[in-house]
Amino acid sequence: MMNKIGEAPPAAPSAAITATALTVVRGDRTALRGLDFTVPRGRITGLLGPSGCGKTTLMRAIVGTQAKVTGTLDVLGRPAGDPALRSRIGYVTQAPSVYDDLTVRQNLDYFAAILLPGRAHHAERRAAVDRAIEDVDLTSHADALAGRLSGGQRSRVSLAVALLGTPELLVLDEPTVGLDPVLRRDLWDLFHRIAADRGTTLLVSSHVMDEAERCHRLLLLREGELLAEDTPEALRRRNDTATVEDAFLRLVDAAAARAARAQTRTATGTAAKEERR
Ligand SMILES: Nc1ncnc2c1ncn2[C@@H]1O[C@H](COP(=O)(O)OP(=O)(O)OP(=O)(O)O)[C@@H](O)[C@H]1O
User: Fold this and answer.
1) What is the Å distance from ligand 1's center to 27 Cα?
2) Nearest C-alpha neighbor of 155 from the set 197, 204, 196
3) Ligand 1 mutation pick, 29, 209, 220, max ligand atoms within 8 A of CB
4) How many helices and strands (H and E) does the chain possess?
5) Hey, which end of the chain has fewer CB within 10 Å, N or C?
6) Whose CA is nearest to atom 29 of ligand 1?
7) For ligand 1, atom 1: residue with the closest CA
8) Is there a contact between 145 and 103 (Cβ–Cβ < 8 Å)?
9) How is 98-111 classified by DSSP, letter by letter?
10) Could you read off the pLDDT tens digit of each residue along the chain, which spans 277 residues?
11) Is the minimum distance from the CB of 26 to ligand 1 under 6 angstroms?
12) Are 54 and 2 in contact (CB under 8 A)?
């Protein structure tokens, strides 16, 4: 298996993503509050946290599709959203973006024609499409209509589209949601192969904590705040727990206790001020 932490590639010299005081407002809510973190190159970083904690918002900020972003967010050496980054990043959203009335191959041909237009690139396009179909293990379904595929197969077509341009950074929003355990394992093996063989940086979100163990590094999010940024092993060790899930729960409890203490201090301070009046 490729996804043992011990078999990880050596540490990359520079960060693929650096965020400082990153804040995002969505509607009347602050979806992300002052996040500081880095995502190392060539590694798999898991973005974990419960539903609604801000994972998609953070991914949208990184790929440059999110409004009202403040602080600094540097992606592959450029500010997030810089047009020069478009071809260097692959982004797979939660909803598979495939055409149901086209076959798997036709879907990929279509997107390959946008990435590599013109007759001159014909052979290159074909090779890229073949490789992407093989990467996601859909060779035997290449001529099936996307509309007739299972949910897991459709999301793999979306992933194949993202792999077409050989991106340096692959941002995957809950790619394993709804998949059976075997498919989930196969996809994680594929992510590890992509990171190890191509040096691609992967940022993968999940709200399933057992997937945390498959990542080289983790960003744990809760209610728009970063609870921790570390390796799964260090998180378990530091919190003296057997699993990342237990470490996460311990960190949540500690954060809640800190918030309660701060509230008590504020309430005591206000009462004292009122008394002095
Ligand atoms: N279009 C929107 N307008 C206003 N607020 C939004 C919008 N989309 C999301 N939010 C809010 O932003 C916060 C973060 O949402 P986000 O989708 O980033 O969470 P998530 O962790 O990806 O959740 P999930 O795992 O359920 O996809 C939530 O409080 C949500 O209610």
Assistant:
1) 10
2) 204
3) 29
4) 7, 10
5) C
6) 52
7) 26
8) yes
9) --TTSBHHHHHHHH
10) 344 444 444 444 589 999 999 999 999 999 999 999 999 999 999 999 988 999 999 999 999 999 999 999 999 999 999 999 988 999 999 887 899 999 999 999 999 999 888 888 899 999 999 999 998 989 999 999 999 998 888 889 999 999 998 899 999 999 988 788 888 888 899 999 999 999 999 999 998 888 999 999 999 999 999 999 999 999 999 999 999 999 999 998 988 888 888 888 877 777 777 777 6
11) yes
12) no
Q: How far is the CA of 14 from the centre of ligand 1 (A)?
A: 30
Number of other residues whose CB lies within 10 A of the CB of residue 82: 14
Q: Which atom of ligand 1 is nearest to the CA of 60?
A: 18
Locus of tokens 């041909």: 109
**Given the DSSP bridges, would you call strands 69-75 and 78-79 parallel, antiparallel or unpaired?**
antiparallel
Helix 122-135 / helix 104-115 crossing angle, nearest 10 deg: 130
Q: What is the pLDDT, as a whole number, of residue 13?
A: 54
**Rounded distance from Cα 234 to ligand 1 centre (Å):** 29
CA of residue 238 to ligand 1 center, whole Å? 30
Q: How far is CA 223 from the centre of its chain?
A: 17
Q: Ligand 1 mean position to 5 CA, how many Å?
A: 31
Cα dihedral: 255, 41, 90, 196 (round 10)? -110
CA pair distance 159, 243, nearest whole angstrom: 29
Concatenate the DSSP letters of all residues of 223-260 into one string: TTEEEEEE-HHHHHHHHT-SSHHHHHHHHHHHHHHHHH
What integer pLDDT is reported at residue 228 of this predicted model? 94
Contact 32, 58 (CB under 8 A): yes
Longest alpha-carbon distance in the chain: 82
Question: Which amino acid type is present at position 143?
Answer: D
